Amino acid sequence: MYSIKEYVIATTLEEAYNLNQKKTNRIIAGNMWLRLGNANIVNAIDLSKLGLNKIEENDEEFQLGCMVSLRQMELDEKLNDYTKNALRDCVKDIVGTQFRNSATVGGSIWGRFGFSDVLTCMLAMDTEVELYKAGRISLADFVNMKPDNDILVKVIIKKNDGKANYQALRNAATDFPVIACCAVKKSDGWSFSIGAKPTKAVRYTASLEDIQNNMDGTLDDILEKITFGTNTRASKEYRKAMAKVLLKRAIKNIETDGQEV
Amino acid sequence: MEINYVLNGRKIKAEISADDMLLGQLRAQKCFSVKCGCETTNCGLCTVWLDGVPVLSCAVPAARAEGHEITTLEGLQKEAREFAQFMAEEGSDQCGFCNPGYVMNVLAMARDLKNPTEKEICDYLSGNLCRCTGYTSHMRAIKKYLAFLKDKKAEEAGDKA
């Protein structure tokens, strides 16, 4: 378990940012994963009093403060209406209600964890992150950046004409996913994300025509580009085979407006 | 560092270490219903309410209790006894180790959800592990408890009318 010398409840983002420039200091988000490590933290920086636990909506986007809990995401009706329940579906199997009341969207995205349902789901959507110093960048770029000393302030889901569907396969309920996929269909094409490979999620796109005329071939081409791995949960061959099943299921769910297929 | 919070309606001022978890702080306040089962935020045994919301106290930094209201099983004795009666009748207590966290989450669910389906009950309680019962007896107890609450509310509404 980690150790902490000083616990600092930040009063401004600037204070949190300045403290976070030292490698021995760490931001505390939901604290679900961090505390299981063995880091020796000098200053733990708590963002919980900065009002970053709100989901806000305007004409162009949804803005999720980094301290928004996974449970807030799960229960937010407007967000789930817009994402066709994809966000609810991606968090509903994460441990339990109590866990999701504490785990945060900021911690989930910042960690860029291989097993992350949240990262996989949001990566297929038109999502940006707002960093305190670096400003807004797309999640697709952020996911490949090396962790630095900036602070993830918000996660932004842009509104478009997309329809989303999330699928994950688990060996046991509430466990990490063996493989996770999200599909989004927009008027100008499809985007797919594949996570828990078991490394972090990747994003690919395809045209509407390719999926309509040659779904199997197009998905095979995408899956060939992805490096799947083997661990105690599943083999790389199993992951690859199941990824195709889940992607097809997600596509069919979108095409049939969420009806079971 | 010093923290101030409300525990089961009682104001608490406590000296904590920076890396103390809420679980340890609550046991230091003699709330021994709050127990550590897995210490990996998976089993639900350490469930308490933070401002009425169920959380895993093994993962909440004690410092985060500052200014908040914490409720443990010790603060919900009347409701807990009511529900425990159904558990006893349905044989769902067995070894009893998981009971405190389980009862806390059932009581939270009874407040959060109106007329939950069996699936909604399972989903809400999926973070509470029991290694004795297989959950079937839990489900019977919960359904009977929820029916009891419904009747009780109807009676109270009738009395007022």
Structure characterization notes:
The complex is a heterodimer of chains A (261) and B (161). In chain A, the strands form three sheets. Chain A has a five-stranded antiparallel beta sheet with strand order 4-5-8-6-7. Chain A has a four-stranded antiparallel beta sheet with strand order 9-10-11-12, with helices on both faces. Chain A has three domains: 3-44, no CATH class; 55-158, Uridine Diphospho-n-acetylenolpyruvylglucosamine Reductase, domain 3 (2-Layer Sandwich), CATH 3.30.465; 163-255, Enolase-like, domain 1, CATH 3.30.390.50. Chain A is globular. Chain A is of the alpha+beta class and 261 residues long. Helix content of chain A is 33%, strand content 27%. Chain B folds into two domains: 2-75, Ubiquitin-like (UB roll) (Roll), CATH 3.10.20.30; 77-160, [2Fe-2S]-binding domain (DNA polymerase, domain 1). Chain B is built from five helices and five strands; from the N terminus they run ββαβββαααα. Chain B is globular, with a radius of gyration of 16 Å. The A-B interface holds A 1-7, 9, 28, 30-32, 35-36, 41, 44, 46, 48, 92-93, 95-99, 101-102, 173-174 and B 1, 17-19, 21, 40-42, 44, 47, 50, 53-56, 59-61, 63-64, 66, 105, 108-109, 123-128.
Note the run of SSEs of chain A as H and E: EHEEEEHHHHHHEEHEEEEEHHH
Q: Uncertain runs of chain A with pLDDT below 50, 5 residues or more?
A: none
Mean pLDDT of chain B: 95
Order of helices and strands of chain B: EEHEEEHHHH
End-to-end Cα distance of chain B: 52 Å
CATH topology tier name of the largest domain in chain A: Uridine Diphospho-n-acetylenolpyruvylglucosamine Reductase, domain 3
Which CATH architecture of the largest domain in chain A would you pick? 2-Layer Sandwich
